[in-house]
Write a structure and sequence with these properties.
Radius of gyration: 20 Å
Helix content: over 70%
Number of helices: 9
Structural class: mainly alpha
Amino acid sequence: MELQFTTGQIRPAECVKEGFRLIKQDYWLLFAITIIGLFIGGFSFYILLGAMFCGVLTAYLRVFDGGRADFNDLWKGFDYFGKSLLAVVVILVPGLIYGVVVLLTIYLPIIAMAVSGGKISPDELIPAFIGALVIDVIVALLMVGIHSLLMFVFPLIVDRGLSSWDAIKLSARATLKNLGGVAGLIAVNIGLAILGYLAFCVGVYLAIPIIMATNLVAYRQVFPKAAEASY
């Protein structure tokens, strides 16, 4: 039976308020679980990123359901290693493509001219830089669009026990049907991240649990709590 989802229920500002309300009692523990999980995921060359992210979400969902966060929830993410592997690949590939585009359009031409000993005049550099910047903005917007379609993937894997492929398809459909709310949610997330950077840069790390909670509230608005969660 195909999972159903709601439409028109995402209220970005309410998501922030409700997300913070739900996690404030366990904020520091969730902060530690999130940062350590992301560190392990990155340190493993992203091989364990899916498992760690699922473990982090397990802790958040437990809090959302009225329980208390437990650091051991992070290791429960290994139960989802196989299910989350394809999702990690699909999410990382666009970022890799963006990095290659930036390298080829901005840095590589400048490095090549510098190494060859050629003089770079402003008349040559400015048009090339503007053209490269336009390409990069277009690619960046495409990457944001792709990642937006996948924003519900990991919660669906943990909360509903779906495979990566099924979660990707369902997340994409739900996002397209809630495009206005998702766009507003992304804008709110960017705003929270900017506020974090303004707070001596380290504040962005403190904002991560709030962003995570905000996105999970939106997830629960689109996919109301199941009678029995898989975690």
